[in-house]
Amino acid sequence: MKRPTTGRSRHSGGPNVGRPGFAWALPATVFFALFAIVPLIGVAVMSFTSWSGLGSPEFNGLDNWNKLLGDKVMMQSLWLSALLTLLGVVIQTPLSILLGVWAAGQQKNRAVLSAIYFIPLLLSSAAVSVLWRALLDPNFGIPGQLAGIFGGDGNLLGSQAGAIAVLTFVGAWQFTPLHTLLYQGAARSVPPVLYQAAEIDGAGTMRKFFSITLPQLRNTIVTSGILMVVGGLTTFDTVLILTKGGPGTDTTITPYYMYRKAFQSFDFGVGSAIALVLVVIATAISLIMVRATGYDKMNSAQEGI
């Protein structure tokens, strides 16, 4: 005889409630389509046209794409964008993990120090860039007052190496708190029983960190990494305010080059092609990271399991 169902899910033990219907996702789907898909299609179409912002766009086939393939500044901008993104990931990831794990603890004055540390996250990128532009002024800023430390004329933005170092530092100063917050939440969700078992086995602080904490943060590391990559590839206002792509074109990253082409040279066709390149690269890297790390196959509610 077939036993009657109890209305409980055999996997979760909770009520056997079905998945929400498509209607639940409809508002978000419509919003995403109107403000993401439709504009993206428009940019893709415009990349095959010639338009100065006046009159009607004229179809020019692959002319814009041929220009980009032979454009040395465009190739350099892709390399610079990749370099700044890589530097951001390499510097911000370990800092965020260490600070996040620390902030998840019970240290004295931890809450106050964490609140102070998160202040840069509350500021806009434009405000942060203006602030550091003033602080790094070679005449009246910190380098000018501490010439013995910074050397030379104190103009850190006057060379490619100095400008890239400043952009990397300013990005880390502003956005490391965001990723620290992600790791703080993830570290607090690690089951305490794992640490208790490790202590019984005689594991020290370092062993618990590398054997328990880091593996449990795997999903968060991937999520944070994707945010860093996408954010690094789309950085614009920091470069616009701090370096204006200089000296020369030494910090002309791809988003800034797109701005120059579209809104300074009024070549919206080429600007649209550059924007499309950025979208494709950022999407491809994100998908590769998700697949390579196995993030898309994680089913557990607990990190790293």
Automatic annotation (TrEMBL):
SUPFAM superfamilies: MetI-like (SSF161098)
Localization: Cell membrane
Keywords noted in UniProt: Cell membrane, Membrane, Transmembrane, Transmembrane helix, Transport
Name of the featured protein: Sugar ABC transporter permease
Primary localisation category: membrane
InterPro entries: ABC_transporter_permease, MetI-like, MetI-like_sf
Sequence intervals crossing the membrane: 21-48, 78-103, 115-136, 156-175, 221-242, 268-290
ABC transmembrane type-1 domain ranges (all copies): 78-289
Family statement: Belongs to the binding-protein-dependent transport system permease family.
Superkingdom to which the source organism belongs: Bacteria
Pfam families on file: BPD_transp_1
Membrane topology: Multi-pass membrane protein
GO-annotated cellular components: plasma membrane
GO biological process: transmembrane transport
Leader sequence segment: none
CDD domains listed in its UniProt record: TM_PBP2
